[in-house]
Structures are given as C-alpha cells and as structure tokens.
Design brief:
α3 crosses α4 and α3 runs parallel beside α5. A hairpin with a 6-residue loop joins β1 and β2. The protein has a domain of 165 residues: 3-Layer(aba) Sandwich (Rossmann fold). The strands form two sheets. The protein has a six-stranded mixed beta sheet. A four-stranded antiparallel beta sheet has the order 2-1-4-5, covered by helices on one side. The chain is of the alpha/beta class and 253 residues long.
C-alpha cells in the first residue's frame, strides 16, 4: 500500500483546450468546449451536471473511446492526443492504462468472479496462473474473496460491483473512470463503493474520475467539478477525512 505522504505528485490526467462536437453546420452540437483539467495521482474527482452537460462525453474522451475535435491530452505521462491521436494502439492503451467501471457490472455470466477478472489480464498477455493469482488477490483486497467461485447471477448487487471494480484494476491502471457506479446500489452499498474507490486512489496512486448525480456521495470526493453545456463552470475543493487503509494489501502485477 502506498504511503499517502509519498504519493507520486505527477498528474495522471492532463487536458488542455479539449473540445468535442458532433455534426456540422446547423446540426452541430458542442458536447465539450475548451476543457482544461488536471487530475493527480491519489485524487478522486467527481463530475456532476445536468443531463447533456458533457460528463459522459468527457469520460469517453479521457478513456480514449471518443476522439476529441481539438485540444491536447496527456495520460499517465504519455501525450496521446495533440489535435489528432498520437497513439495508434488505443486498444492496448485502454487495456493497460485505464480501468472502466459502469452503472451495471457487465460481468460475463458464464465466468465466476476470479475468471471474470483474470480474463482481462489474459487479454493483456498475463499467463493464466499469474492472472488467477492476482485476481484472487484483488478479490481479497476488495473484501469479496469468499465469493471467488460465485457466478454473477449468484452475487448481490454490491458484490457484483466490487468484482467489477476488481476487474477494472486487473492490469494495474493508473486511471480509473467510473460512470454512475453507485446508481444501482442502495445508499449503504453506494458509500461502501465510494470508500473503496477513494482507497484505490491512494493505495494504487491512481486518478479516479466519477460521473454521478448522487448528491449523497459528493462529500466523498477530493474535488467536485461541475459541467454545463459542455463547459467546466465550477470546481469545489472537498475537505474529507483521510481514507481507511485496506485490510488486505493491493496485489502487485
């Protein structure tokens, strides 16, 4: 586990002048307009705003799923966009540098918890035995090791979301992107998931960006960023208690 006093201070996410539009002429929609944003290692950032404000589009741009229309972007020290993609292997970039967490867990129903996580590592070239060992370690880290042989249909919503978080951590990404990860959960389980994400940010020296409409979790972030009509309109620093350390150490690759 990383010592919070010695977290790498370098930014994991840097955006300068990022814009994204769809269509042209009278049908043009400006989804993002001149976004500047820096997220450092160990930070958990909340993205809020009304529907259509650009939150999910911003997440997709940072995740290298959607190409910006203009601007500059550096991820984990690697400039990946400067008016055009500078990396041709975006699939590999996403696989190794970025972990995705969604509203629904999207676990494969025919694989158990360990297998769902190990599969992501095998796609990256990790040997089968090593992948399963790290998968089991991640399940222990997220306190669902006792469910390693359970299939998604046998898990509670909170358990399935923890397994999905473990899958997002499979290849040791330094950037975690979560789109409404607490939406399907009750308030107790939602707060547990947010505590886990905060813990991961510190333990793994990751930048965590979370899109949310859930006002009950706003105080869990380090910063809360508001978007409207594709523009970053406000940033609020949140003073919150230090994170509780994980009971199990984060397994290494």
């Amino acid at each position: 586990m990383a010592d919070s006093l010695h977290i790498d201070p370098r930014p994991r996410v840097e955006l300068r002048g990022i814009s994204k539009h769809f269509g042209e002429g009278e049908t043009r929609v400006n989804a993002l307009a001149d976004i500047d944003l820096t997220v450092r290692a160990g930070e958990m950032i909340g993205l809020r705003g009304p529907s259509g404000s650009g939150k999910s589009t911003l997440l997709n741009v940072v995740g290298c799923v959607s190409e910006p229309s203009a601007g500059w972007m550096r991820l984990d020290g690697d400039v990946v966009y400067d008016s055009h993609w500078l990396r041709h292997d975006l699939r590999r970039l996403r696989l190794m540098k970025i972990g995705f967490i969604f509203q629904t867990h999207n676990l494969l129903p025919f694989l158990n918890a360990t297998e769902n996580i190990a599969e992501a590592m095998e796609l990256a070239g990790t040997p089968w035995r090593q992948a399963r060992a790290r998968a089991d370690g991640l399940l222990d880290y997220l306190e669902v090791g006792h469910r390693r042989y359970a299939y998604p249909g046998e898990m509670s919503g909170g358990e399935a979301q923890r397994v999905a978080i473990a899958r997002a951590l499979a290849n040791g990404p330094r950037i975690i992107l979560a789109d409404e990860p607490t939406a399907p959960l009750d308030s107790v389980r939602a707060h547990v998931v947010m505590d886990l994400l905060a813990r991961i940010a510190k333990d793994h020296e990751a930048a965590v960006l979370v899109v949310t409409h859930d006002e009950s979790i706003f105080q869990r972030f380090d910063r809360l960023i508001s978007l409207r009509d594709g523009r970053l309109v406000a940033t609020e620093e949140i003073k919150r208690p230090g994170n509780v350390s994980a009971q199990a150490a984060l397994p290494t690759l």
